[in-house]
Amino acid sequence: MTFQKAKEEHKWKQWKEQEEKVLRESGMSEDKIAYLRKLDWQDFNAERRFWDHYSSDQEKLYTQRKEETMNLLNSEQLLDHIANKQLWEILRNTDPKTMEIILMKIWGFTVKEISEYLHLPEKTIYTRMSRLKSKIQKCCAEIKKS
User: Fold this and answer.
1) Spatial separation of the C-alpha atoms in residues 105 and 121, rounded to whole Å
2) pLDDT tens-digit profile of 92-142?
3) Is the pTM of this model over 0.70?
4) How far apart (Å, rounded) are the C-alpha atoms in residues 145 and 60?
């Protein structure tokens, strides 16, 4: 999430106009109102700078977390952690692209990010996930019947 300066500046100006109206009604001099405006504007800019740095730092941390997570798990490691034999068979027989999609979802990527990374349409990503989900649900239904 980035700091939207124009939007925040608009909110600040509206707040400041209301405050100055109250100050004028209370009898404060224009010099003091102008001085307060200057101080508040400095505070606004300091906060803007903070959020600009905070946002970019958060992006770096998010990217770093994704890269670390990607290194922790691959398709073989995922299959090693599957205890259910039917589920293991379904995942083992799943095509590599679909497995890559599933792993990227586990790693925390959005469908849009996966789409860009794999150069596939978002609809294709959803379709592949849906088909795999149907296979797994079908397997679970058979297990319940047994």
Assistant:
1) 15
2) 888 888 888 888 888 778 899 889 888 999 999 999 999 999 988 887 777
3) no
4) 48
